[in-house]
Amino acid sequence: MSSALAVSALPAAAPSYLSPTGVEIAFVLIGLLVLGSALLVVTVQNLVHAALWLVVCLGGIAGEYLLLGAQLVAWVQILIYVGAIVVLLLFGLVLTRAPIGRTDELDVKYKLPAIVVAAAAAGVLVTVIVDAYHTTWLEPRAAVPQGTNAANGAALFRFWVLPFETLSVLLLAALVGAIVVSRRGADSESEENRGTA
Amino acid sequence: MHAVYPLLLGALLFAIGLYGVLARRNAITVLMAIELLLNAVTINLVAFGSLIRDQFNIGQVFTLFIITMAAAETGLGLAIVLMIFRQRGNADIDGQRQLAEPLGGPADETDPSADAVAIAPGDGGSEAEEEPVVARALAKTEAAR
User: Fold this and answer.
1) For A16-25, A29-38, B119-128, B135-144, which range has the lowest pLDDT when averaged over its residues?
2) Where are the domains of chain A?
3) What's A104's DSSP letter?
4) Which of A89, B72, B123, B139 could connect to A174 by a Cys-Cys bridge, CB 3.0–4.6 Å?
5) Phi and psi dihedrals of A148, rounded to 5?
6) How many Cα atoms are found within 13 Å in the side-chain-facing hemisphere of A39?
7) Which residue of chain B comes nearest to A25, CA vs CA?
8) How many domains, chain B?
9) What's the predicted TM-score (pTM) here?
10) Domain range enclosing B45
């Protein structure tokens, strides 16, 4: 445990996989929940259910962040993803009159190539990661001081001020652009049409 | 914690998101799959951040940046999807064969009223209005040509 403070671990320091710690057990269980709900997001036929499974998936990922010692990121994940983005996606589903019940419109002819590509990506990534990192030990408790609001704020405004401000301009530009784009279809004629309807 | 657990979670989530992007047809579910891809990346960032623990706190700060960009991307993407739906009557990405706007074809469209069977009768008025709007927009581009 104490030797884990040394970055990226002496290979011999990693305990056996057969005696997992409590954090590891919790991480793997939540990870299975995340993966299962992610599979449901991409395979379930009911679009609204897909959006709701996305809530489970993103919430589980927030739990994983907590287990990795990143508390601010976890709460930002809950706030932004679950609170804002999923609601936005649900609004999108409603506004495009997505079919409410089960649909077969998700059965596309590219399903088999998609499975092949995804399986190949998973295979390559898993092989490389297991090969490279199976001896690396990560100590989440040592990362807790880095995950606090104070540490994140200090890093953000001491080292990352320019990207931060640039990103705020980007977000503003994207949202103004979204307003402009979604008003674009409403030219004068359809606007008065909508007024009379 | 062994570092492979979060890294494997990120890798598998990435593969699932990749499948979703490729196999889904509705544009909004494709956006959901893109969120999965972004989250796979941020899991990796947080994991490496707590592995390396540098003074710049780069993993978590970049995660915050990516979450912000995901919000921007989703807002803009949904605006585009809504505009396409308003003009073309459906939002299926494999049905879009025209890049031009207001897009060429009623031939491309599925009938919007077919999708709207489950909607309350009170919505019928706006439903009926949809077609003339599209037709008029098309006529206007034709005239412009």
Assistant:
1) B119-128
2) 2-145, 160-197
3) S
4) B72
5) -70, 165
6) 9
7) B1
8) 1
9) 0.79
10) 4-144
pLDDT for residue A155 is more than 80: yes
* pLDDT confidence band for B20 (50 / 70 / 90): very high
- The DSSP 8-state label assigned to residue A110 in this structure reads T
- One DSSP character per residue, chain A reads -GGGGSTT--GGGSPPTTS--HHHHHHHHHHHHHHHHHHHHHH-S-HHHHHHHHHHHHHHHHHHHHHTT-HHHHHHIIIIIIIIIHHHHHHHHHHTT--SS--STT--TTHHHHHHHHHHHHHHHHHHHHHHHTT-B--HHHHHHHHSHHHHHHHHHHT-HHHHHHHHHHHHHHHHHHHHHHHHT--HHHHHHHHH-
Q: Do B29 and A190 touch (CB under 8 A)?
A: no
Tokens matching residue A154 = 């200090």
Residue range A2-145, CATH number? 1.20.120.1200
Q: Does A121 or A8 have the greater pLDDT score?
A: A121
Look up residue B5 and give its amino acid.
Answer: Y
Put simply, whether A29 touches B (Cβ < 8 Å) is no
Q: Are B43 and B78 in contact (CB under 8 A)?
A: no
Is the reported ipTM for this assembly greater than 0.90?
Answer: no
pLDDT at A11 over 50: no
Check: CB of residue A108 under 8 Å from CB of residue B94: yes
Q: Which of A23, A38, A119 sits opposite B36 (nearest CB)?
A: A38
The CATH number assigned to the domain holding B135 equals 1.10.287.3510
Please state, in angstroms and rounded to a whole number, the distance separating the CA atoms of residues B82 and B70. 18
Cα dist from A141 to A22, A25, A153, B71, whole Å: 12, 15, 19, 30
Chain A residues lying within 8 Å of B22, measured CB to CB: 110, 113-114, 117-118
Locate A80 and state its tokens. 């932004």
**Residue A98: strand, helix, or coil:** coil
